[in-house]
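Hi R.,

Here's the input for the adenosine-5'-diphosphate complex you asked about:
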Amino acid sequence: HHESLPISSDPQEVHDLSIEFNRLLRSLNNQVLREHQFVADASHELRTPLAGVRGHINLIRRHGQEHRDIVPTSLDYIDAESLRMQRLIESLLRLSRMDHVDLALTYFNLSDLLDKIITRYQQQIPQQLVRDQLSDTRVYANQDSVEQIITALLDNAHKYSPAESTITFEVANAGDCIQLKVLDQGIGISDQDKPHVFDRFYRADQSRSQKIVGSGLGLAIAARLVDLNHGQITVQDNIPYGSCFIVSLNKTKP
Ligand code: ADP
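And here is the predicted structure with adenosine-5'-diphosphate in place:
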């Protein structure tokens, strides 16, 4: 500020100010810690595939001449791992770009958007895509980002479900909000994992061990986008099995 700070002699006011100042300092401190953690996690996630790639390059260098058969296998490994790193870096960039943005929000019909997404995706995945009818589903949000959110949830529902299963979209009125549910009949998410699935780089052991491709960033990005739309995202069990992700979007300008 350019003006000089108003210096108060009222002890109550000084006390309040110092509390406010402390609060700000703490939140700034937390912010710095979070960024630090983010850089540490990202480096860790990149270090492992990179070490693998270097290992296979060495393998080809040392033994590629005598053992020709290892070359294509190693190249496949290098190819897959470098693709994984590329995807990871793209996701990281997307996340960091979203740190300081304000999305332009408008009114649009969520059901129309769902129809568009379903038509496009049904050809690409084996699971059956179904949505229930609801006429008035106008929301106040950013359409591109809502499309990204739904696509991320759909991607996961597809990855973590058997081919012969159904992915259902339900749209319902819920007070000031429209609630979108994405229900799958896949492997589900344990109660221990549920609180963490929106964290950056978090992957349930089951997904890591079953070698399902992923970075653990999809839901972190989706949650950030939901935030920018002033909405909410939660996860529950689907009954009798599978997962249910719920996105709430505002019906009107808050
Ligand atoms: P990933 O790239 O690993 O899929 P996400 O951030 O999209 O990362 O999801 C984080 C983790 O949450 C996943 O690794 C998986 O363990 C779990 N998960 C997300 N969606 C589902 C789902 N529909 N069914 C089962 N598990 C899921």
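One thing worth noting: The first helix runs from residue 11 to 63.

Cheers,
M.
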